[in-house]
Amino acid sequence: MIGDADLDPAPLAGRTVAIIGFGNQGRAQALNLRDSGIAVRVGLRPGSQREEHARGQGLTVLAPVEAVQGADIVALLAPDEHLPSIYAGIEAALKPGAALDFAHGLCIHYGLIEPRADLDVIMVAPKGPGAALRRLYGEGRGMVALAAVAQDATGAAWPLTLAYAQALGSGRKGAGVLRSTFEQETLSDLFNEAAVVWGAVPALLEAGFDTLVEAGIDPQLAYLECVSELKLLADLVEARGIAGMREAISNTAELGASLGGPWLVDDGVKHRMRAVLAGLSGDAFARSLTAEASANYPRLRAERRTAASSALEAARKSLL
């Protein structure tokens, strides 16, 4: 892990960064860079609902093709599925030798974007949501980030990547910059989303809630037991690790965990996890994402409606 003591801000000094997008990562990165003394522009399509918000933060807002003109670094921070068309629209306006930056490796790893040969292609991927990246920066702390170079056209892409990560605050104490590759960042991130934190954990919470309610347990109590305590677990694991978490809970809880956990997460689960990871080695997921976007997200919209109308969500609202 690389920290501020080993990071040199000089490669970014006097450079101009164009941030394309002002959502989860775009807002946080634009503001962190600006507060680190970097000249920042924000590129948004005309009429974007985020334009007023960005201007209210004191940022210069231009159409994407105007924002990238003359910029030394162009950070593509809109949703992954929109980046190929965005890049196609700005490619001719990118100055020779500019750096194209990503916060996720998907479009490069799966070949959805093929950058010009004269461009540096870099990635600084904070390991958490933009809101937390911005909050930590304001507290004088930072968020761990992965850094990678896919194309070093100028011969100076790596120092520039590290300087960008430092300007986001990722080299500060308690965080750090981890050298990676576009492939490893993409596969690990997609695997986590599908098979662990964003896929399996919510499904496990819902299954636990449903099991208790079906057994006659009050829905509010089932929610408190199966969902609310997750934050306590996450805080303990972050502070003390999994081994330290086990030392911090009661003997009753630890024994229950030692009996129930291995029985539920058995070799069959690990086998299916390996299948998920193997499935990500091809471009099937990237093609599914593109198709979902082209159809206006029918699967995601349906699943959001289902989640909003679930018994678990009703129990959560009843506790507010």
Helix-strand layout with pairing:
Blueprint lengths: L15 E5 L3 H12 L3 E5 L7 H6 L3 E3 L1 H5 L4 E4 L6 H8 L8 E4 L3 H4 L10 E7 L3 H9 L6 E7 L5 H11 L9 E3 L2 H14 L4 H15 L4 H30 L2 H14 L2 H13 L4 H11 L3 H11 L2 H8 L2
Parallel strand pairs: 1-2, 1-4, 2-3, 4-5, 5-6, 7-8
Antiparallel strand pairs: 6-7
Write up this protein.
GO terms for molecular function: ketol-acid reductoisomerase activity. Substrate binds at residue 250. By secondary structure, the chain is an alpha/beta fold. The chain folds into two domains: 4-180, 3-Layer(aba) Sandwich (Rossmann fold); 196-249 and 282-318, no CATH class. The protein contains 15 helices and eight strands. An eight-stranded mixed sheet has the order 3-2-1-4-5-6-7-8, with helices on both faces. Helix 1 packs parallel to helix 6 and helix 9 (200-214) packs across helix 10. The longest helix has 30 residues, at 219-248. The two termini are 41 Å apart. The mean pLDDT is 94.
